[in-house]
Amino acid sequence: MSKYTELQREAYEANMQIPAQHLALYTWGNVSAFDKDAGVFAIKPSGVPYPDLTPESMVIVDIEGNVVEGKLRPSSDTPTHAVLYKEFAVKDGAKIGGIIHTHSTYAVSWAQAVKPVPLFGTTHADHIQTEVPCTPYLSKEAVQNDYEKETGNLIVSHFRSLKLNPNEVNMVLVGGHGPFAWGATADKSVYNAAVLEEVSHMAMNTLQINPAQKTLPDYIIEKHYMRKHGPNAYYGQK
C-alpha cells in the first residue's frame, strides 16, 4: 500500500465530482489534492475518462512537477498546479489543499471574452468580495516556452499585480482558456469551481436583462461576505 493512499483517495473523490457537478465534458477537467508537509500532491492522470479512474490511478507529484509515484502520466495541467501550490500555499502561506481546473461553459465564456465576472449580487458576495479576476492572454513567448508552467506564473503575477489574497479570492479565469479554483481541501476546490460556474451564469443572465447593470454596493458586499467569513460570522452552525 502506498504511503499516499489517503491523498490519492481525496484526489479521486474530488475528481469524480467534476462530472457529478456538470463542470466538464469528457476529460476536460482535473483536481489535485496537496499535502504541504510532504511537499507532494495527487492529481488526475492525463486523458483518462472519469469512469475509468481509481484512487490508485492518481499520480503523486512534487511541487517542482516531478512524478514521485504512479504508473500513468499526470494531467497536462500539472505544472500549473505545481506553480500555484509553490507560490500561493508554500511561499505565501495560503491555506490551499486542493486545486481544480475545468472547462465549464459559463466560466469559460467569460474567460474567452477576457473579462472578469462582475460582482452583481449576494450569491457572489457570499464567497468573494471582488469580481472574479481574469488574466490577459499569455504572451507568444510564454506559450512557446513552457505553456502550462507559464499559465501558473501568469495567475500568480496577476494576483500580485492586483494585490489579491488567494485565501480570500479562491478563483480565477485565464484569458482565452478557462477557470481555476482552489480551497482548503480538494473537495472545497470543487465547491468553489461550482460556485464560480454558477455566478458566471448569473452574471451573464444579469447583463442580458440589463446591460447597464451596476455592481452590488460595497455595504451589501461587506455584509454578506463577513456574515459567512468574518470574525463574528453567524451563518450556519457552530
How many helices? The count is: 7
Q: Could you describe the largest sheet, including whether it forms a barrel? A: 7 strands, antiparallel
Portion in helices: 40-55%
The tally of strands reads 7
Strand order in space, largest sheet: 4-3-2-1-5-7-6
User: What integer is the average pLDDT?
Assistant: 97
Residue windows where pLDDT falls under 50 for at least 5 positions: none
Rg calc: 17 Å
Order of helices and strands: HEEEEHEHHHEEHH
Strand content: 5-15%
Distance between the termini: 37 Å
Structural class comes to alpha+beta
Shape annotation: globular
The gist of it:
With 238 residues, the chain is α+β, with helices and mostly antiparallel strands. Helices cover 42% and strands 14% of the residues.
Description:
The protein has 238 residues and is α+β, with helices and mostly antiparallel strands. Helix content is 42%, strand content 14%. It has a seven-stranded antiparallel β-sheet with strand order 4-3-2-1-5-7-6, with helices on both faces. β3 and β4 form a beta hairpin. α2 packs parallel to α5 and α3 crosses α6. The longest helix is centred in the C-terminal third of the chain and has 24 residues.
